[in-house]
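[Discussion] Sanity-checking designs against the backbone

I'm trying to build intuition for which residues belong where. Below is a structure token string of 260 positions. I'd appreciate it if someone posts a full sequence so I can compare it with mine line by line.
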């Protein structure tokens, strides 16, 4: 099995990888692991795969997708177990710079409670969808975080069963809901396919309700979200998501670069 010297660069890389924040293309990994330039590209790719596997890490997307210069996340091979107890501890801790709660992905609870007699179809809200995607966008830009969907602002559990009602009859389940979220990310973010690689989704069952937990990794490339045919950039500011205006972007990029 290939071995690597424990250089400072490798140790820093491992620290970021185990915390979910490592990002590199294959060429950068060749340099981090100080692979010989005389080795063929295929040989170096095989070596990278072996080294990462030995460290309990994997690439997202894997080596079957993309090119040598395609950006990839380097994450732990095994996902950390999230029990209902761990989830409730996170939820009851309330919103913060790296945790956000959303009542639903699509379903407009406020409209439903208003007693307007709206049909199920009418309870699908583009603004509710945009609100959830904004949180994803802000976490991508601001160091990552966790988004719970199916939880009210007061930390009470609602579940995503309300969203299921808005899916086609054969997709009113967790798989159908995840497909919907992935399609919304793909269709509303610039480079949406790549953005999906930064979102790890799990479903947690608590008191008979299904809650979605989306863990969003930090992304070095700016993540622009489309709304009303215009792309916008968001960041996390304390426990709020806010849009960056044109005059804020330069300062934001300078601060962001200094922290990486």
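Best answer:
Here's mine. Compare freely.
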């Amino acid at each position: 099995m290939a071995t690597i010297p424990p250089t400072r660069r490798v140790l820093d890389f491992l620290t970021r990888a185990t915390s979910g924040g490592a990002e590199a293309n294959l060429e950068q990994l060749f340099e981090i692991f100080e692979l010989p330039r005389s080795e063929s590209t295929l040989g170096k790719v095989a070596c990278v795969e072996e080294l990462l596997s030995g460290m309990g890490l994997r690439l997202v997307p894997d080596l079957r997708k993309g090119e040598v210069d395609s950006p990839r996340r380097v994450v732990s091979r095994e996902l950390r177990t999230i029990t209902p107890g761990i989830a409730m501890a996170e939820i009851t801790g309330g919103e913060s710079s790296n945790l956000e709660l959303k009542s639903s992905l699509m379903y407009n609870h406020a409209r439903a409670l208003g007693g307007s007699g709206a049909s199920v179809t009418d309870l699908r809200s583009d603004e509710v969808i945009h609100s959830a995607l904004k949180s994803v966008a802000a976490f991508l830009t601001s160091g990552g975080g966790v988004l719970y969907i199916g939880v009210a602002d007061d930390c009470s559990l609602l579940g995503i069963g309300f969203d299921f009602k808005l899916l086609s009859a054969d997709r009113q389940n967790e798989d159908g809901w995840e497909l919907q979220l992935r399609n919304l990310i793909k269709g509303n973010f610039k480079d949406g396919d790549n953005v999906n690689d930064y979102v790890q989704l799990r479903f947690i069952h608590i008191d008979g309700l299904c809650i979605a937990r989306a863990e969003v990794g930090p992304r070095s490339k700016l993540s622009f979200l489309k709304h009303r045919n215009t792309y916008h950039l968001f960041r996390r500011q304390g426990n709020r998501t806010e849009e960056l205006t044109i005059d804020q972007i330069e300062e934001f990029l300078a601060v962001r670069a200094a922290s990486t």
